[in-house]
Specification:
With about 450 residues, this protein is α/β, with parallel strands linked by helices. It folds into 2 domains: about 5-225, Carbamate kinase; about 305-450, VC0802-like (2-Layer Sandwich), CATH 3.30.2130. Helices cover about 35% and strands about 25% of the residues. The protein has helices spanning about 15-30, 45-55, 55-75, 80-100, 110-120, 120-135, 165-170, 170-180, 205-215, 250-255, 270-275, 330-340, 370-380, 405-415, 435-450; strands at about 5-10, 35-40, 140-145, 150, 180-185, 190, 195-200, 220-225, 245-250, 275-280, 290-295, 305-320, 345-350, 350-360, 385-395, 420-425, 430-435. An 8-stranded mixed beta sheet has the order 3-5-2-1-8-10-11-9, with helices on both faces. The longest helix has 19 residues, at about 55-75. Bound molecules: aspartic acid and magnesium ion. Magnesium ion (MG) binds near residues 11 and 39. It comes from Idiomarina zobellii.
């Protein structure tokens, strides 16, 4: 019996009839038993989010109509269109009830309802995928509701999966897959132990797929997207960026965290912990190959790739009380943790600390990264300076800071632009620095030219 694989298709791969058919063709060519995990059709989750923010009924209705239209268009090339219509109509009807009472996203007790609303994108797209798969192959494809597989806590909007419980819930599915069943499930959504619908944060389908791969003891996770793998840098910045054949888990994790949009940063953790290889390829052009992420790649170049993350905030906290004092860092991080603020980079001097925060955050609730109440708490013992509109550039590779010296190369490429912060030493796999958003592209071009 061949080991199980998980194949995840992103929103652009699910965008329309033609692209869904291409995904089905990809799956049909797989030899291993494969669980399919899908994102919502491109643009649908954004519209659902907009519905949850919108206060006018006409606007909500317009967005709802557009969603229905995307799904109907996507269904239109099915040989037997009717087979999926009653499923879609049922889901649209349920969605419409929520649309008419769209929750106010800012009220925390409404986050549960919002997750229910957001779940419809994947619930509809999984029906579309199963319909195309069933109708263009000899066997029927079923939809498994991810809410009966993926168990999470009840942190609505950014829920954390419970891998042990998910594993228990996946026992039957594993059996079915091994017996040749064709199964499609939804990315992004799960269910709390109480049975409420949850979501894993924007872009969370990769994460879902990785959790399900771990729960099924899968051998490989295939992420099918709209690029043929991971590149040396963003090809929109450098037209000569090259796809990477292989990359290590550690390097890929740094790349995902520091801006490469190909993979959801959290998605690699379950794969790393369970030794599951990850392949990233283009769902439309699978023949172009892709990138394999694995524990030990054949080569370990000192510089593998460059990533950029826009919209960074630099928060500098300065306090003379810190001079020779203990516990200052603990106090600062305690405040940040209480406000659920995730910090990326940190540098310190004797009396001040500079840290970077991601302005977009990963929370589906879209809360500010700098809540006023938190700033007030900080100002009680320190001076706080905020700089926005910065870009983080990450140089990703191996044994950085241990062999050779990449610093002159980085400084030369950045010169004469001021570097607002620089971090190296915590990881052998990255060197990161901050510059203004406007200057970042040019610096990446200069760095990439020597790669
Ligand atoms: N549909 C969800 C989103 O757009 C999840 C995903 O695509 O991964 O955020
Ligand atoms: Mg997506």
């Amino acid at each position: 019996m061949l080991p199980i694989h998980v194949a995840k298709f992103g929103g652009t791969s699910m965008a329309n009839a033609e692209s869904i058919q291409a995904c089905v063709d990809v799956v049909e060519r797989q030899e291993n038993p494969t669980l399919v995990v899908v994102s919502a059709c491109a643009g649908v989750t954004n519209r659902l989010v907009a519905i949850s923010h919108s206060h006018t009924q006409t606007e909500r209705q317009r967005l709802f109509d557009e969603i229905v239209d995307i799904h109907c268009q996507a269904a239109s090339a099915l040989p037997k269109e009717n087979a999926v219509h009653h499923h879609l109509a049922q889901l649209h009807q349920l969605l419409h009830i929520l649309v008419q009472q769209a929750p106010d996203a800012l009220e925390s007790h409404q986050r549960q309802k919002r997750d229910e609303l957001l779940s419809f994108g994947e619930r509809c797209s999984s029906r579309l995928f199963a319909a195309y798969w069933s109708q263009t192959s000899a066997t029927n494809a079923e939809v498994a509701d991810a809410r009966s597989l993926l168990v999470t806590n009840n942190n609505f909007g950014n829920a954390s999966p419970n891998i042990d419980k998910t594993r228990e819930h996946c026992a039957d599915l594993r059996e079915q897959l091994n017996q040749g069943a064709r199964v499609v499930t939804q990315g992004f959504i799960g269910s709390s132990e109480e049975g409420n619908t949850t979501t894993l944060g924007r872009g969370g389908s990769d994460y879902s797929a990785a959790i399900l791969a771990a729960a099924l003891d899968a051998e490989q996770l295939n992420i099918w997207t709209d690029v043929a793998g991971i590149y040396t840098t963003d090809p929109r910045i450098c037209s000569d960026a090259r796809p990477l054949e292989q990359i290590s888990f550690a390097e890929a994790a740094e790349l995902a965290t520091f801006g490469a949009k190909v993979l959801h940063p959290k998605s690699l953790k379950p794969a790393i912990e369970n030794g599951i290889k990850v392949f990233v390829g283009h769902s439309r052009y699978p023949e172009k190959g892709g990138t394999l992420i694995l524990p030990e790649p054949d080569e370990r170049p000192s510089i593998r790739a460059l990533a950029r993350r826009k919209n960074q905030t630099l928060l500098t906290v300065n306090s003379v009380d810190m001079l020779h004092a203990t516990g200052f860092l603990a106090c600062l991080f305690d405040i940040l943790a209480r406000y659920d603020i995730s910090v990326d980079l940190v540098t310190t001097s004797e009396v001040s600390i500079a840290l970077t925060l991601d302005e977009e955050g990963s929370q589906a609730n879209g809360l500010s990264v700098l809540p006023e109440a938190m700033l007030e708490e900080l100002r009680e013992f320190a001076t706080v300076t905020i700089e926005q509109g910065l870009s983080l550039i990450a140089v990703i590779g191996n044994d950085i800071g241990h062999f050779g010296d990449i610093s002159p190369w980085v400084l030369e490429a950045a010169s004469p632009v001021p570097i607002r912060l620089i971090c190296q030493g915590a990881s052998r796999h990255n060197l990161c620095f901050l510059v203004t958003d406007e200057q970042a592209e040019n610096i990446i071009k200069k760095l990439h030219a020597k790669l």
